[in-house]
Amino acid sequence: MTDVRENIIKVKAEIPEGVSLIAVSKFHPVEAIREAYEAGQRAFGESRVQELLLKEPALPCDIRWHFIGHLQTNKVRQLIGKTYLIESVDSERLLRLIDSESAKRDVITNVLMQVHVAKEETKFGFYPEELLDFFNKHGYESLTNTHICGIMGMASNTDDEDRVRKDFREIASIFKQIRENPEFGLRGFDTLSMGMSGDWKIAVEEGANMVRIGSAIFGERQY
Ligand SMILES: *Cc1c(COP(=O)(O)O)cnc(C)c1O
Predict the structure, then answer these.
(1) Nearest-angstrom CA–CA distance, 78 and 114
(2) Cα 160 to the center of its chain, rounded Å
(3) Mutate which of 193, 212, 213, 221 to test ligand 1's pocket (most atoms within 8 Å of Cβ)?
(4) Three-class SS string for the chain?
(5) Any bridge partners for residue 90, and if so which?
(6) Which residues line ligand 1 (CB under 6 A)?
(7) How far apart are CA 174 and CA 113, in angstroms?
(8) What is the Cα–Cα distance from 104 to 91, expressed in whole angstroms?
(9) CA 174/CA 206 separation, integer angstroms
(10) Count of beta carbons in the 10 Å neighbourhood of residue 116
(11) Ligand 1 centroid to 183 CA: how many Å?
(12) Residue 139 has what pLDDT?
């Protein structure tokens, strides 16, 4: 059996200071999340809206929920107000919708822009040039109820460490280009979320300050 508590303690001991750990609990039951909670973990990641909405009321209020999956526009309304951070904004249309729904609810929603560098066809996110274009045309300045806190990205799903490192380096470089461009004048754009169970150490070496770890904590997912 998976010892969630032991895994949390082990992972936390390995993660350097200044890097925040998101425990990815998708497809795992509330009891497993509670075990992690009791070991001191407060930030959890979910990839499906319905699942997050079912778990959230069954668990302590001080959990910070991170939404990390592809968010369909027809689910945005239900999700607003439930998350600490939506990490997976993959289109301007989605961003605008999050903003307008947040305005209706009178809340500020924290988001990360998801960037796509991996070689898989199926992954969501802005291509690097698209994301730079978005900032270059100052598309974010009209947002009233959304705080863009940084970038989330994934490396290619491969055992080729050089490939993975190259992907993370590219994501980190886009992050820096945006953050350090004085013309953008962004405030609080400081989160670089990259790295999962199999590759988080490389991600941290390449500058990640948030890692999203699932199976190394909760064991294999039961789909
Ligand atoms: C599932 C998932 C993770 C966690 O993956 P593990 O390999 O189980 O650590 C991280 N990020 C995203 C976006 C995910 O969908």
Answers:
(1) 21
(2) 23
(3) 212
(4) CCCHHHHHHHHHHHCCCCCEEEEECCCCCHHHHHHHHHCCCCEEEECCHHHHHHHHHHCCCCCEEEECCCCCHHHHHHHCCCCCEEEEECCHHHHHHHHHHHHHHCCCEEEEEEEECCCCCCCCCECHHHHHHHHHCCCCCCCCCEEEEEEEEECCCCCCHHHHHHHHHHHHHHHHHHHCCCCCCCCCCCEEEECCCCCHHHHHHCCCCEEEECHHHHCCCCC
(5) none
(6) 24, 26, 47, 68-69, 196-198, 212-216
(7) 11
(8) 20
(9) 12
(10) 18
(11) 34
(12) 85
d(CA 72, CA 88): 11
Position of tokens 């039951």?
Answer: 29
Tell me the two tokens of residue 215.
Answer: 């199976």
Dig out the tokens for 153 from the structure. Answer: 């990205």
Tokens of 94: 């989605």
Cβ-based neighbour number of residue 104 at 10 Å? 11
Mean pLDDT of successive 10-residue segments in the chain (223 residues)?
92 97 97 97 98 98 98 98 98 98 98 91 87 94 97 95 97 97 93 98 98 97 79
Whole-model pTM: value is 0.97
Q: Which amino acid is at 16?
A: P
Instruction: From the CA of 218, give the closest atom in ligand 1.
Output: 8
